[in-house]
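Much of our argument rests on the idea that a fold can be written as discrete symbols. In the encoding step, the backbone of a single protein was reduced to a row of integers, each denoting a local shape. We regard such an encoding as a compact summary of how the chain folds. The record that follows shows the chain in one-letter code together with its fold in token form:
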Amino acid sequence: MRARELAPTTLKAYEGELRRFCDWTPKAWHQVTRRDLERYKQFLQEGKSKRGKPRSPETIRRTLTTLQSFFRWLAICDYVVKDPTLLLELPKALPAVSKEFKTEEVHELRIEARGNAKLQARDLAMLSALEHGLRASEVVGLNVEDYDGERLHIKAAKDDSIGTVPLTQKARAAIDSYLSWRLRSGFEVTPASPLFISLSPRNKGERLGYHGLYKEFKKLAELCGIENAHPHRHRHTFATELVYSGMDSAKARRLTRHRTEGSFARYSQKALDAEAEREFLQRFGEE
């Protein structure tokens, strides 16, 4: 798994699922049978999560999919003779629903970022990158040379979804202002230096890490009173705004770097639903 381009949180979740299965069964991996996995699925369906709530079909499906991927890898590498998940039936997947920020929430995050004189230049630039659909792992992986004054060049990404993202004037101004502040503050600004740096006493001037970005973002969201906020919601917001603007989904996917129409369908479907409702109201005199 570490050989794949996975976000730290995704990798942590995968490892957690494997550990939970190991805690549930005393068997070694090569001893696990399909019957064991069916029993484990029943255990997940009948049991409750750490929060005391029943597990959703999506959660159970994600758990079993992780095990499927792992056993497939074990079989390919000849660590097991047979993949016990081959005929394992998974709970039906429900359509994915995007969870975007409201327009006022995006504004509130920016206002809160401006409230900290020490961090505002960096945090406004960081928010600008996230608002253009970049994953958190992509943002922290950027170098100064990946910003050409007009766009960001993503050279390492999940599922090899590399590409170029053009920036709005407001975003360009935020990044330019941040880099100017870096120079005035005595921080290194060379093509190979990280675009976003840590400003914590321990790691000051070093590359901002994934957990550092996540922590700063959560702090801003909490100050704004936004619940269930995480950086990836900006990616959902960006994709939704593109299709709501009327942009063709194929062109929108070039900007979000979704590799297939299926993975982008949640946004296209939402825009189609909104358009259908709008046309209905227009035709029947409600607007």
In short: Residues 143 and 165 are 15 Å apart (CA to CA). The first strand starts at residue 151 and ends at 154. The radius of gyration is 22 Å.
